[in-house]
Design a protein that fits this description.
Helix content is 34%, strand content 21%. It is α/β, with parallel strands linked by helices. The model has no long low-confidence stretch (mean pLDDT 95).
Length: 525
């Protein structure tokens, strides 16, 4: 994790590497420096941007050296995309940069900062010129840069060390801004909070990127225990306790592996939590490797299946971040950990298992294992009577077909909760889209031999999986359904294409920020 600071240092004196934000204006690139650059540097860069045909489009980074008036030996321009449109719908022309910069979306700044950080591997320090005075903008810039300055190297050998050092992510990040004295405390607090959350998200990325022979249910549980802050209690159920406790879904999925399953509960219950803020339950899918079981996947489809525990990683990271921030709300995370393998005791299509809440489930396809472990976790969470259950899972390829690889689906049994989750994701900069669970979907899961089948009709796979999980969310003391939401993060949990913005290749830690923002908003209600 790089050192992150809000620095009042003059831009002209910033050493090593400097990044400025550039927007795509109606008449060409617009330098967004809020008058922080010396005049000669501004004129030089503005001319160079035009000469090199830099557009200011999102994810565009250009490099400049020898910029007059600056101590930095390298200057980067990071594109934020188009300037906002005026009331008539026309794109602004960039004459009033500071006013227009104030309207640049926070996520655009976050992504541009990440792209700049990715472009300065091997440099010692990165200073980013804040384009306006919003504390939230300072935080977004810091967060994006810290996520962009990420590289997973835990599995690299000794011989690679020298080369890795030359391209190591930048270890120090300064957001160059000098807010007014009465606003500095708020600004520094926002940057510090952003750094806290991003540190946990980077840890979630580490978990997703670990090799499955290193991270398996037992070692995952140990890693979580070692990383937990003092304010979080960690409890673990092993394979024998899971069997005794009636967790047929987790046991059934894990029984084909030599590495037995686990269910880890992480609880944060601060003294200042109140009945008004309520209590939340987060449930994360933790399939540390998914071979498909007896319904084995094609070899090519297994390559990235170490990422099938991305939901559990995000839940653990979010609960820990909430504790680190000291939010006054009770949160419990349930990590449903198993390895889905075709061993000699693997479950079969046609098996019937009894879940934690007593429902029986007929197994149809052993490659639809995630909903089984999640159903047990959701049922356990429901027993505690939370005000909301949110589950996070790399659940269905169908959701990727619908929404692509950068957007998660949001399902819920409660319209207000679905709106809250969507708002939390938008505020944190994570792309989601609300999807329905239509009334006819449940009938497709009728079983001849059990209470429910765990799969349904061929079409609408993401809805079918969500409908199955909803079946286990339970009711409150008055018999009303417990509000339940489901994030299908199959697409954005792992990036196996080109890096973009602050998203590097590999694990992303997606949903960590959404869950933290959801808890923060609830704690302030």
């Amino acid at each position: 994790m790089p050192d992150i600071a809000l620095s009042p240092q003059p831009v002209s004196q910033a050493p090593d590497t400097l990044a400025v934000f550039v927007a795509k204006g109606g008449d060409g690139p617009v330098l967004l420096d809020a008058d922080r650059l010396p005049q000669e540097a501004r004129e030089h860069l503005s001319d160079a941007l035009s000469q090199l045909r830099v557009s200011g489009k999102a994810d565009e980074v250009a490099r400049f050296t020898g910029v007059p008036g600056l101590a930095a030996t390298l200057v980067l321009s990071a594109g934020v995309g188009p300037l906002p449109k005026d009331e008539s719908g026309q794109q602004t022309n960039g004459q009033d940069d500071a006013a227009e910069a104030a309207q640049v979306p926070l996520e655009a700044l976050r992504r541009a900062a990440g792209a700049a950080a990715r472009a300065c591997g091997g440099r010692k320090r990165l200073g980013l010129v804040a384009p306006d005075e919003r504390p939230a903008a300072f935080a977004a810039i810091a967060q994006g840069a810290a996520l962009g300055a990420y590289k997973f190297t835990d599995h690299r050998g000794i011989k690679a060390a020298e080369g890795l050092a030359k391209e190591a992510p930048v270890p120090a990040i300064d957001v160059l801004a000098d807010p007014a004295a009465d606003e500095r405390e708020e600004a520094e607090a926002e940057v510090a909070a952003a750094a806290t959350v991003v540190a946990r998200q980077r840890w979630a990325r580490d978990l997703v990127n670990m090799a499955p022979n290193v991270l398996y249910p037992e070692s995952f549980a140990l890693t979580v225990r070692e990383a937990a802050p003092d304010s979080v209690t960690v409890e673990e159920l092993d394979e024998e306790e899971l069997a005794e406790g009636g967790f047929g879904g987790i046991v059934g999925v894990g029984q084909g592996s030599a590495r037995p399953p686990r269910l880890v509960t992480i609880s944060y219950s601060p003294a200042d939590a109140s009945e008004e803020t309520g209590k939340l339950a987060f449930v994360g899918k933790g399939i540390t490797f998914d071979s498909g079981g007896l319904c084995i996947k094609p070899g090519k489809s297994m390559i990235t299946m170490k990422c099938d525990m991305g939901g559990a990683a995000a839940v653990a990271a979010a609960v820990f971040a909430i504790a680190d921030l000291g939010l006054p709300i009770e949160v419990t995370g349930y990590l449903c950990l198993a390895e889905n393998m075709p061993g000699d005791n693997a479950q079969r299509p046609g098996d019937v298992v009894t879940m934690r809440d007593g429902q029986t489930v007929e197994i149809i396809n052993t490659d639809a294992e995630g909903r089984l472990v999640m159903a047990d976790g959701i049922a356990l969470a429901a027993e505690t009577g939370p005000d909301a259950i949110i589950d996070v899972a790399t659940l269905t390829g169908a959701c990727m077909v619908a929404l692509g690889t950068r957007t998660a689906g949001v399902f819920a049994n409660d319209d207000a909760l679905q709106g809250e989750l969507t708002s939390a994701a938008t505020a944190s900069g994570e792309a989601v889209w609300p999807l329905p669970i239509t009334s006819e979907i449940r009938a497709g899961m009728d079983s001849l031999v059990a209470d429910i089948s765990h799969m349904g009709a061929d079409m609408g796979g993401a809805m079918t999986a969500a409908a199955f999980l909803r079946n286990f969310a339970g009711t409150d003391a008055d018999g009303r359904p417990i509000p339940w939401g489901h994030l299908d993060i199959a697409g954005p949990a792992y990036n196996d294409s080109s890096p973009h913005g602050y998203t590097v290749k590999g694990g992303t830690g997606f949903a960590t920020r959404t869950l933290v923002e959801f808890a923060r908003a609830r704690s302030e209600d």
